[in-house]
């Protein structure tokens, strides 16, 4: 129960790393604002079952990260409940794969809007609550691609690298309010995004470079987010934690 009594905001909760993080946080006692683009019956059933199992208060919040106005409204709806925010996990994101010269600038702008600008906008709102209580933990889910600079990932890797840079800047600025800011750089992780964007030959080549010779599970990234969100990491800020099986 590392997060007992805490309230977290997590984006991209309907699948992959976000859904796993929602589950792990609830199991460790956190109430969660589960941010998704749309709520369907499957996700509603999942939330209800998880809430009954853990006793956590799990509340869906719907907004599209590609729409700045929608992000503002979603953030305001969270803050309107007057429940202090302890943790923010910026997880949601989109990916695009194409060679640099074949990547339209509009596509780069789209990825930056979803993967970077909208995340910073949401963070600005959540920090208002954290600053008032003078404590908080922010975890930004970046990517090993931001460090490795993988071929075909100009837009994606650049947007995730921008998040790493902002993590370090925010850590310096927000430390005076006792708010910690860290990032996670996952390697290959078994998500719909990975399977839909990584060709078999590229996957095989990457696995050869991984010490553990396997793809990570979303729960393994979620547990790293749990660590960075809990008091176990109370003296960590401005760091980028690679969770990549030893790439």
Question: Any chance you could write out the topology, listing elements then pairs?
Answer:
Layout: E1 7-11, H1 16-27, E2 31-36, H2 41-54, E3 58-62, H3 68-79, E4 87-90, H4 105-133, E5 136-141, H5 145-148, H6 154-174, E6 179-186, H7 192-197, H8 200-208, H9 218-229, E7 240-243
Describe this structure in words.
By secondary structure, the chain is of the alpha/beta class. The protein contains nine helices and seven strands. It has one domain: NAD(P)-binding Rossmann-like Domain (Rossmann fold, 3-Layer(aba) Sandwich). Strand 1, helix 1 and strand 2 form a beta-alpha-beta unit. It starts with 6 loop residues before the first strand and ends with a strand. 43% of the residues are buried. The model has no long low-confidence stretch (mean pLDDT 95).
Order of helices and strands: EHEHEHEHEHHEHHHE
CATH superfamily: NAD(P)-binding Rossmann-like Domain
Main sheet, how many strands, which sense, barrel? 7 strands, parallel
**Low-pLDDT ranges:** none
What would the principal axes of the Cα set say about the shape? globular
What's the arrangement of strands in the largest beta sheet? Answer: 3-2-1-4-5-6-7
How many β-strands, per DSSP?
Answer: 7
Under CATH at level 1, the class stands as Alpha Beta
Structural class: alpha/beta
- The whole-angstrom Rg is 17 Å
What is CATH's topology name?
Rossmann fold
Distance N terminus to C terminus? 31 Å
Averaging pLDDT over every residue, what do you get? 95
Number of domains: 1
Kindly estimate the percentage of residues that lie in beta strands according to DSSP. Answer: 15-25%
The CATH architecture category equals: 3-Layer(aba) Sandwich
Number of helices: 9
Share of residues in helices: 40-55%
């Amino acid at each position: 129960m590392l997060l007992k009594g805490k309230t977290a905001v997590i984006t991209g909760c309907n699948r992959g790393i976000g859904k796993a993080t929602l589950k792990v946080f609830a199991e460790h006692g956190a109430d969660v604002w589960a941010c998704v683009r749309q709520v369907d019956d499957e996700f509603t059933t999942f939330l209800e079952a998880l809430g009954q199992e853990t006793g956590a208060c799990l509340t869906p919040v719907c907004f599209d990260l590609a729409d700045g106005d929608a992000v503002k409204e979603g953030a305001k709806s969270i803050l309107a409940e007057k429940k202090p925010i302890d943790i923010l996990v910026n997880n949601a994101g989109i990916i695009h794969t194409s060679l640099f010269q074949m990547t339209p600038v509009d596509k780069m702008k789209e990825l930056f809007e979803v993967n970077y600008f909208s995340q910073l906008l949401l963070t600005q709102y959540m920090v208002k609550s954290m600053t008032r209580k003078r404590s908080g933990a922010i975890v930004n889910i970046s990517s090993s691609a931001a460090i490795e600079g993988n071929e075909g990932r100009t837009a994606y890797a650049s947007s995730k690298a921008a998040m790493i840079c902002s993590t370090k800047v925010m850590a310096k600025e927000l430390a005076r309010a006792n708010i910690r800011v860290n990032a996670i750089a996952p390697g290959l992780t078994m998500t719909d995004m990975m399977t839909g964007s990584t060709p078999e030959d590229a996957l095989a080549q990457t696995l050869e470079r991984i010490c553990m010779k396997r793809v990570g599970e979303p729960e393994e990234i979620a547990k790293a987010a749990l660590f960075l969100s809990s008091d176990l990491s109370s003296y960590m800020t401005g760091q980028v934690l690679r969770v990549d099986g030893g790439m």
